[in-house]
Structures are given as structure tokens and as C-alpha cells.
Amino acid sequence: MDSSPITEPVLLILLSLADQPRHGYAILQDTARMSGGSVRLSTGTLYGALHRLLEEGWIERFREDDSSRGKQAYRLTSLGRRNLRQEVTRLTQLTRLASLRIARKET
Amino acid sequence: MRPLYNFLLGLYPAAYRGEYGEEMLAVLYEVQTEIQKRGPLGQIVSSGWEVAGLLFGALREHLRVITGSAPRAIFFPRRFTMRSEFRFPKATVTLMTVILLAIFLAIDKAKAIQASIPYANPQVGPIHPTQQLMLLPTLLLVLAGACVTAALGWGILFALHRSGVHRFTDVDASSRPRSSRSLLI
Predict the structure, then answer these.
(1) Are B182 and A52 in contact (CB under 8 A)?
(2) Rounded distance between C-alpha atoms, residue B120 and residue A77, angstroms
(3) For chain B, which has fewer Cβ within 10 Å, the N-terminal or C-terminal residue?
(4) What's the helix, strand, coil split of chain B in %, to 5?
(5) In this complex, do A56 and B179 lie within 8 Å of one another by their Cβ atoms?
């Protein structure tokens, strides 16, 4: 596993798909909501990321009963979920360390 | 905006467009409907953001087709390792970009010099009819030469792409899964 951290947009896309499958526009809305509006993905950026994630096997297409081609949904694969969990663990450790250091400096 | 989005999607590689084009267009229409509810400034900013995203995306995907890797690997190398992969396409693209930038800089500098000394060049008289007759074939010859050179360059890149050399970058000698590749986008 490459130790390079994944970027914030990719992390938000993975988090968006963590609880349920979503289609493109729903991912855009969810990432904007999760980041409090600070990350607004363009459609070109979103599909670039989805393309890479599909190639890497982190996500897969999900066929909904009422889905047309224009409303293709995506969901996390087990590999994507495992990698997302690792990334979240890494970030948790980092924020815990940051909190400790900041608290030590303040006291 | 919709004709513009259609046009911008047309800039993507055909395979990518075939896979995601219809879906992206549907999302762009939904985004556009949302954008139209905003004020004039918000509409301009959001539409500009979408256009920039599509332009950058088209460029990125073309670079991926040519080089076989993400463009970030070209512009922002994260590490320097000894690699046995074929590197000519990446080097070519980078070199061509540098040359193009140098040409633009040279033109800009020449214009600045010309503006600073406006009377340095003597007045050019009218072109003699025989000179005019020679000028046209020369220009056509130069144009034909440029076309042949461009066709040769394109042919070399196309042959390299068709040869599958760039696919060697995807070959993993170890048993690691494909997920080992970076997802920095």
C-alpha cells in the first residue's frame, strides 16, 4: 500500500460513498455539505477522481432499479472501504497528536 | 451554457467520453439548474468553475492517454526513484511545454524591444511583383514543411501509443494489488 495520503476531494468522495451508493450529482452535493461548503468539486474533477477510483478498484458501479445511464450510482468496494478506514485511522492519529502538542504548548 | 458544456465534453478523449460523457452531461445539467438560482456573480463564478474543471479534466485525460500516467506525475514528481519504464513520452511532453513557454517569452521580449526602439528598423519599400511571386511559393513551402513535421510528430506519438509501450507503466512485477498506485488527483 502506498503511504501517500489521499487528497481531500478524494477522501470526501470516499466518505460520501461510505454510507450508501450515490450518483454523481448527489456526491457533489454531499461533499459540499460535509466540508461546510469549503470544497466544491467541479463535474470534471469529480469524474476524473471517479475514473481513477474505478480503475483502482476502490469503487464500483451500482445498478439501481430505477437508474438511467445519466444517473449511474457508485459504491465503495471492500478494498475501498479498507483503504478509507486506514486513511481515517491515520488522520485520527494525526489529529490526536496535534491536539496533544497544542495542549502541551498552551500549558 | 449547455452548448458550451457539450463542446467542452467533446474535448475529452473518445473512450473517456463514451464511458462518462452522457453521465457527466446529466450532472452538468443538474448543476446548471442549481447555478441559475444564484445571483449574477454566483452564476459567473460557478459556471467558470465548471468550465475550468472540464478544460483541466480534458487536458488531464489526454495527458494520461499519451503518457500512460496521471499528469501530476509529470508536473509534481513526489519522489525520485530508479525506474526501468520507458520515459520518452513524458520527457517529450515536458520538453515541448518548456519550448512553447520559451517561444512565448521570446516573442514577448521581442515586442518589448521593438516598442522601446520604434525607429530602429528602416522603412520597407513596396514589394516588387517578382518578389511577391516568389513569396507565395515560399510561404506555401514553409506551411507544407510545418504540416509534414507535425504529421511526423503525431505519427511517432501515435505509433508509440499503439505499440503499447506506455502500458508497461501499469505492469506490476510484484504481487501487490492495483490499489498500491497513488490516488493523488
Answers:
(1) no
(2) 70
(3) N
(4) 75, 0, 25
(5) yes
Tell me the domains of chain A and their CATH numbers.
Answer: 8-106 (1.10.10.10)
Task: Check CB contact of A17 with chain B, cutoff 8 Å.
Answer: no
Helix axes B14-35, A24-34, angle to 10 degrees: 60
Q: Is B143 helix (H, G, I), strand (E, B) or coil?
A: helix
pTM above 0.90, yes or no: no
CB contact under 8 A, A6 and B28: no
pLDDT tens per residue, chain B (185 residues)?
A: 788 898 999 999 999 999 999 999 999 999 999 888 888 888 888 888 899 999 999 999 988 888 776 655 443 334 333 343 444 566 677 778 888 888 888 888 888 887 887 666 666 666 666 666 677 788 888 889 999 988 888 888 877 777 766 555 555 555 444 444 445 55
Phi-psi sector, B164: left (phi>0), alpha (psi -120 to 50), beta: left
Alpha-carbon gap: B38 to the closest alpha carbon of chain A (Å): 15
